[in-house]
Input
Amino acid sequence: SAVISQKPSRDICQRGTSLTIQCQVDSQVTMMFWYRQQPGQSLTLIATANQGSEATYESGFVIDKFPISRPNLTFSTLTVSNMSPEDSSIYLCSVWDATGANVLTFGAGSRLTVL
Amino acid sequence: TQLLEQSPQFLSIQEGENLTVYCNSSSVFSSLQWYRQEPGEGPVLLVTVVTGGEVKKLKRLTFQFGDARKDSSLHITAAQPGDTGLYLCAPRGGPRRLTGGGNKLTFGTGTQLKVEL
Output
């Protein structure tokens, strides 16, 4: 299955600043998905990142707050802009496994704490 | 997108106990997946159930898809500390309000399990 590396694994940020999270996959994939997991909660899909086009955002998430880049088929970034304590979450990158086994594979996540 | 309801939300048990986790809906799905997320990691697929009434076993874990393909359960026998984690169900091929539609995967509300020695 695909191997996904996320950076940073964790960070502590100040209110009002922005942080960019990187996601690197060891194989080429069409779609990359970004999820948010608030403390003690399930995963919520933020957006789908497609190479060569703008990301598709889910209801409640906007590009100005969570800009996404997808420069090639193995890499994507998610920026959390103008952060507030409510943005403290784990952010996870995921892709469908290339074997076609209908498995969603995840990175280990980026734990963000906003003070 | 609405989240599929899971119950219980939290469960803390002693090693050796049995438990069942439920994933319930009034909608029909073509399949349903179960994932487990351990602390500090991303979720990992445990199983996919496709046929109504289907039962799949993974060591001490038994997964069942409801006859009408609207719900699913996960039963763990003789739980061990290594079973600790967040268990998530994820429906496929159902109403967009629950599945998100297309190639997206949405998850249920989750069950946080803690197994203590």
Q: What stands out?
A: Residues 4-114 of chain A form a domain with the Immunoglobulin-like fold (CATH 2.60.40.10). Chain A has one domain: 4-114.
